[in-house]
Amino acid sequence: MENIEMIEKLMEKADVTFEEGKGVLESVNWNLLDALIALEKEGKIRSASTSSHSTKQDISEEIENIRSTDEPESFKDVMKRFFSWVKKLAVTGMDNRMLMHGKDGREIFGMPVTVLTVLLVISLFTGFITVVLIGLVIAFFRGCSFSFEGPDLGTEKVNSFMSKIKFTGGRKSESDIEIDDRK
Questions:
Q1: pLDDT tens-digit map of 98-133
Q2: In degrees to the nearest 10, what's the CA dihedral of 113, 116, 118, 120?
């Protein structure tokens, strides 16, 4: 079913204009059933009979009718949705960065989370993951700490947890998770 046909079908079933129908369908990713449910919650569904009331049974019948006539998504639509999700994930990762700080707290290194993830996946498949892990352990034992900055990962909750994880070299600290090397 094409988009215009879906809007017209929605206009038949609900008290909406062309623009309202298009807006509702866009908000539910062009799923006619979800659009009807959203409009039902807003009280904009027309009753099946000429009387002024509608019952849940009438609406359930309409939803079943649409569900049975609704065509399954094509492979193209599924791939379009998948790549849209991947794009959103990549953009979110580029907006957030992982930072490495030295003992004195100054920033040594920073990298977008998307780039970090891609490099980790590549290192996993090329066998360099051990080199990456050894580098992280060396940085950890040299007193480096890690944090995140950005709108999604740069929250106080995440960074307060990250700041507690550091190698203390046997020194006791109330706020740190201690890893004691004197065994």
A1: 999 888 889 998 999 999 999 989 998 898 888 888
A2: -140
Give CA–CA dist 106/145, Å, rounded.
10
Please tell me the distance from the alpha carbon of residue 126 to that of residue 172, in angstroms, as a whole number: 40
Q: Which residues contact 170 (CB under 8 A, 6 or more apart)?
A: 180, 181, 182
Report, as an integer, the average pLDDT of 161-169.
72
The answer to whether residues 148 and 159 touch, using CB atoms and an 8 Å cutoff, is yes
3-state secondary structure of 147: strand
DSSP state of 110: E
Q: Does residue 5 contact residue 21 with C-beta atoms inside 8 Å?
A: no
Which whole number is the average pLDDT over 76-84?
89
What contacts 152, CB < 8 A, 6 or more positions away?
92, 95, 96
| Rounded-to-integer distance, Cα 75 and Cα 55, Å | 37
Q: What number is the average pLDDT over the span 121-148? A: 88
Q: Residue 45: how many CB atoms within 10 A of its CB?
A: 20
Provide the residue ranges of all domains of the chain, joining segments of one domain with +.
Answer: 3-71, 75-183
What's the pTM? 0.48
Going along the chain, which residue ranges are E strands?
97-101, 107-112, 145-149
35 against 54, higher pLDDT: 35
